[in-house]
Amino acid sequence: LMASLIAQGTSSVLYEEEYSPPFLPLTLLLMPLFWKYHVRITEDYLSYGYTCSIVRKVAPRTHVVAAEPFEIKPLRQWGGWGIRLRLGKLQTGYIAQAGPGVRVTLMDAKGKESIYVFSCKEPRKVCDILLDAQSAPAKSLSTAEVYN
Fold first, then answer.
1. How far apart are CA 86 and CA 78, in angstroms?
2. Which residues fall within 8 angstroms of residue 53, CB to CB, at 6 or more apart?
């Protein structure tokens, strides 16, 4: 449902970037899953990740409790590119390139916090947009809308 809401354009896009990650040639068998990387923020949602829905993250902007610029070092911090887990820090990374990114803390409907790091070209702008949502009134969503 959430993907269809975004696809139908029910919210205006506040920020968007999309490109093919530089590691794409290394993923011949998985290429369709990682064809394009994107960061998209609408009035209602934050979405980042890759082409297929199983390799992207979509969350209501009202679930963002913190966002800060983060310098990504794929090999040193994450052991490579793609979707990576950083177990010692309990973080999930959507690592498309070395360089600028955002570390975002999301709180789900049950009050559980999760930390994600994702590549983006304009981290300060992304953080400003995301943190602006904290001052906006919360939009009520069902669990099905949040995680579909």
1. 6
2. 3
Quick: pLDDT tens for 54-90. 778 999 999 999 999 999 999 999 999 888 998 888 8
Q: Which two tokens stand for residue 70?
A: 């983060």
Q: Helix %, strand %, coil % for the chain, to 5?
A: 30, 40, 30
Round to whole Å and give the CA distance between 141 and 147.
10
Contact 120, 128 (CB under 8 A): no
What residues in the chain have per-residue pLDDT under 50?
Answer: 1-8, 137-148
Burial of 138 (0-12, 13-18, 19+ CB in 10 A): exposed
Q: Supply the pLDDT for residue 81.
A: 86
Nearest CA among 92, 2, 1 for reference residue 45 = 2
What letter represents residue 123's amino acid?
Answer: P
Q: Which amino acid is at 110?
A: K
